[in-house]
Design goal:
The protein is built from 19 helices and 8 strands. It is α+β, with helices and mostly antiparallel strands. It has a 4-stranded mixed beta sheet. Strands 3-2-5-7 form a 4-stranded antiparallel beta sheet, with no helix packed on it. The relative contact order is 0.06.
């Protein structure tokens, strides 16, 4: 018996290269392993970065998705590429961009440091203005304290946003930018938000550009009615609109970055939400808008709206197992944790952990991030055993992937020390906080306030162990930093001074 089977397939060509950065052109990557979802076979890129994969039972235009891209020391520059549905084509090659993890971390640190310097400048200006109003008696002590607390809260929430911003910018491929956009990108990365804003506005009125895009979209909708006669024209219009829409979205993000670097929250909020509204089917836009309103605007309900929209997008575009779904579950878990709905938060965190373990492996840095947050959640539940277990696993992973003096390792050690302190195991807590102190001493990028916070922790364990003179010295060091950076009337400065005075009174009472 002869069984005849009709098999059809599309040969999808592609190329793998590194992203191009300023002064560093992209280079082809060989040996990258690409696996297509639903297929048991994997293909490798050749010396020139080219690869081809046979997509069975598909016609041109049918969607496929990449399950994984593996190359030692590299990761996809476009994280959303994994799991995204892509129309196959035997004529249009797929370009895959990878970035060296070492290069990525270095450039992220450099971009964040320059942006952080701008934030510090604008923070100090706001602080000086509050002090001036207080001195001129145009603010009451109560109103001054309220505004100062608000300012400080906003400042403290900037770090995760700066990290997200620098990650996005450090993944930008310069070969895909035109000359003017390259200048804008350079200005943002160099810590010159004023120049970046000026150059963006040189491209034309933003409202007019958006209005033009909306008009183009309307024309597309009308053209759809006569798709048989105008298919070629419609496809061209779609491509133009997509490019223009992406360009405008990128400029919204660049303006957001400029205002964020200048500590101008309202304007940054306006543009990051404009970008999210421009394309409500882009999961990254929703996640980044949600992160901003969560961290800076402290609007948890609005943040959840963005995160839940991102979740629905992930369900339809990426499926259950994807990096975007893991991030979305993580952020929804954070919202429930902040609202003290800890059991619900735990469910979402566990979903994020399961996805990240399956997608990236059980010892990846992304898994360590979720483990760290689970540790903090169990700390909030006062379940010290579980908190210690998750923080310890996170530390082990971070020590494997990061330098021993990295801030990631310091964060895990600080969290473990906090669990020890709450269990009154002061010697163990102190030993770890001393290690954190040494890490900070080796890292010139650590803010002075973080060092002061660690001195407060060390002073606390010294006090608990009866070493009051040592505690006084540590509290004095912290108070001096707070006074210099935040001012004498800042709540943290007052708290440090209060702890200092309480310790001195303790010594006086013992000497009587």
């Amino acid at each position: 018996m002869c069984l005849c089977v009709s098999v059809f397939a599309v040969t999808q060509q592609g190329n793998v290269r590194t992203i191009a950065r300023k002064g560093k052109p992209g280079k082809p990557i060989d040996g990258a392993v690409i696996r297509i979802r639903g297929s048991h076979n994997a293909v490798q890129s050749r010396d020139n970065g080219d690869f081809s994969v046979l997509l069975y039972d598909m016609n041109n235009g049918d969607p496929y998705a990449i399950a994984s891209i593996v190359k030692a020391g590299y990761e996809p520059a476009e994280q959303e590429l994994i799991g995204r549905r892509i129309p196959c084509s035997d004529k249009v090659p797929l370009e895959i961009l990878l970035v060296s993890r070492t290069q990525l971390q270095q450039e992220k640190d450099e971009i964040a440091a320059k942006a952080r310097a701008n934030v510090e400048v604008y923070y100090e200006k706001r602080l000086a203005e509050l002090n001036r109003l207080l001195a001129a008696k145009r603010l009451s002590e109560q109103e001054y304290s309220k505004r100062l607390e608000e300012l400080e809260g906003k400042y403290e929430r900037f770090e995760p946003l700066l990290q997200a911003m620098s990650d996005k910018l450090a993944r930008t491929d310069y070969e895909r930018l035109d000359s003017l956009t390259t200048l804008i990108q350079n200005a943002i990365e160099s810590g010159d938000p004023d120049e970046a804003e000026r150059l963006v506005r040189e491209k034309g009125d933003l409202d007019a550009r958006e209005a033009a895009i909306r008009e183009q979209e309307e024309r597309i909708a009308r053209a759809q009615q006569t798709i048989d006669e105008a298919q070629a024209q419609l496809d061209q219009q779609r491509a133009i609109t997509a490019r223009n829409k992406q360009d405008l979205a990128d400029d919204y993000f660049r303006l957001y970055s400029a205002f964020l670097s200048r500590f101008q929250n309202d304007s940054a909020n306006f543009y990051i939400q404009k970008r999210a509204a421009l394309d409500t089917l882009n999961v990254d836009y929703q996640l980044q808008a949600g992160l901003f309103v969560k961290e800076i605007m402290a609007d948890l309900d609005l943040a959840r709206t963005y995160f839940e929209r991102a979740y629905r997008i992930c369900e339809t575009q990426y499926g259950e197992i994807s990096g975007q779904m893991a991030t979305t579950c993580h952020e929804i878990g954070y919202i429930y944790k902040a609202k003290r709905q800890l059991d619900t938060a735990l469910e979402w965190y566990n979903r994020s952990l399961a996805i990240r373990e399956q997608e990236r492996g059980e010892d990846s840095p992304a898994v360590a991030e979720t483990l760290n947050n689970l540790g903090e959640l169990y700390t909030a539940k006062k379940d010290w055993k579980q908190a210690m277990e998750y923080h310890s696993r996170a530390l082990q992973i971070r020590e494997k992937h990061f330098d021993a003096n990295s801030l990631q390792v310091a964060e895990s050690k600080n969290n473990i020390a906090g669990v020890y302190f709450r269990q009154e195991q002061y010697k163990k807590a102190e030993a770890l906080w001393l290690e954190v102190h040494d890490i900070y001493a080796e890292n010139p990028k650590v803010p002075q306030r973080r060092i002061a916070d660690n001195n407060i922790n060390l002073g606390g364990v010294a006090y608990k162990q009866g070493r009051y003179t040592e505690a006084i010295s540590l509290f004095e060091q912290a108070a001096a930093v707070y006074t210099k950076v935040l001012g004498a009337t800042h709540p943290q400065t007052r708290n440090a001074n209060a702890m200092l005075q309480a310790t001195k009174k303790k010594i006086d009472s013992l000497n009587k």
